[in-house]
Structures are given as C-alpha cells and as structure tokens.
Amino acid sequence: MHNDLQHTSMGIVWWAAGLVGVWLSRKRNGQPKRNLIPGIIILMTGWAMSAHPQHLPISTMIHTIFGYTLMAAGAARIIEISFVLKDRASVATDGSDPNSFQYLTPFLLMAGGFMFMGATEEQMKLLSDANVTHVSYVLILYSIAFLLFLCRSSQTSLVLSQANLCLVVNMLIHLYAVYAWGQDDKADAEAPLANGHANGHINGYTRVDRRVRDAEEFELEGLDSDDEEDDSPRVNKEHRSLAAQH
C-alpha cells in the first residue's frame, strides 16, 4: 500500500511540476526559454527512488543507486542551465560545439534508464539466487551505458551518427535472431550453388523461413491424411461392386 501511495504522489508532483515547466518555458514575446523545473523534478524523483522500499536487499541497493544517478542528472542540469549556458541556447553561437559539461546530463539519464529497466523483480530474484552483488551489476550497466553513449556521441556528422546507430541496432537484431531462433541447418549452408549463389539466393540465405516451411508441410500432411481417410470407404465400395459383378 505504501508503494502505491508513493507512486501516486510521484505522478501528482510530475503533473504539477510539468504545468509550471510549460508556463516558464516561454518568454513574454513567445520565444522559448530554459527553466530549472525539469532538473528540479528529476532531482526530486531521484530522491524518492533512493528511498523506495523493496523486497530484496539487492533490489533496494539498485534503486538507491538509480535514485542517486537521477539526483546527479538533475543537479547537473541545473548547473548547466544556471552557470554553463546562463539561459542561452548553447555556448557557441552556431550551437556546433557543446560544452564538455553538457555531456554529463544525457549520460546520467541514459545510465539511469538502464538501471531502471534492469531492476525488475524477475531480474533481481535471478541475481539474488546467483549471489551477484549490486556493485558488479551496476558496473556492468554503467559499462553498457558508456558503450552506447560512445556510439551516439563519437560521430560529428548527423549522417554518420545515424549510420552508426543503425549499425548497432542491426547488430543487436542479428544477435537476437541468431541466438533466439537458431541458425539454419548445416545442410542448407552446404547446399550446391544455383544461379551463381548458394541455395539460389544472394548471400546464401533462403528467403523462406524454415519454420514456415515445416508448418506448411505439417498442415499439408494433415490434409493428405484426411483425404486418404475420406477416399478409403469409396475405394472399398468400388472393390465390392466389382467383385459382385464377377
């Protein structure tokens, strides 16, 4: 019950702070303006999550570090707006060269997102049963956040950045497809060439999923068996009529 009350109160404060943030995000002439409300609400959310009670000790520690990460992100955002940008759109006039401090807030938010997604009850139960400490788990999550943040911020060109992001996404999809569905059988890989390509297709991969073919063969086999059962009485009747004529 206390968790539900905390969740409800957190939603209320986000709603109230969101209204204030929207109101303060415009100047009198209608131009956009930076304000500190988003940083303040992120800091408050981190404080609430750091004191959020959990059933397992490792889950409590993960939520505590997650709360500290959000608090650091909110404080970094407040410092960035107040002292680095000083309410300006960017440090440089053209906005092409961000300040080094401006990388801190998005990285902390990314790391906090990984910790939040990795703190489900099932994952915490699995880590607790495997005797994995929260320190090791948090360091692994931070390592993943560093790598993905590197993939996002290492490219200066927008086209190269999108290509790099697509490369990471394609790699993850390929790994999931290989290890979740399994690779094709060795017989398909060693099949003779047809039309200049293995299996008759480019890159040696068949266009039809093996599981789809197996399902179709199973359905056709069932239809064939039903047809044979339906035709068997008719064949027996014809044999009896021919025998009676002889």
Q: Report, as a whole number of angstroms, the end-to-end distance.
A: 88 Å
Output mean pLDDT. Answer: 75
Structural class: mainly alpha
Strand content: under 5%
Shape call:
globular
Largest sheet: 2 strands, antiparallel
Any low-confidence stretches, pLDDT <50, length ≥5?
155-160, 183-195, 197-208
Number of helices: 9
* Helical fraction: over 70%
Give the tally of structural domains.
2
SSE topology:
Layout: H1 2-24, H2 37-50, H3 57-85, H4 104-117, H5 121-129, H6 134-153, H7 158-181, H8 186-189, E1 193-194, E2 197-198, H9 210-245
Antiparallel strand pairs: 1-2
Helix pairs in contact: 1-2, 2-3, 3-4, 4-6
Briefly characterize the structure.
The protein has 246 residues and is mainly alpha-helical. The chain has helices at residues 2-24, 37-50, 57-85, 104-117, 121-129, 134-153, 158-181, 186-189, 210-245, and strands spanning 193-194, 197-198. It has a two-stranded antiparallel ribbon.
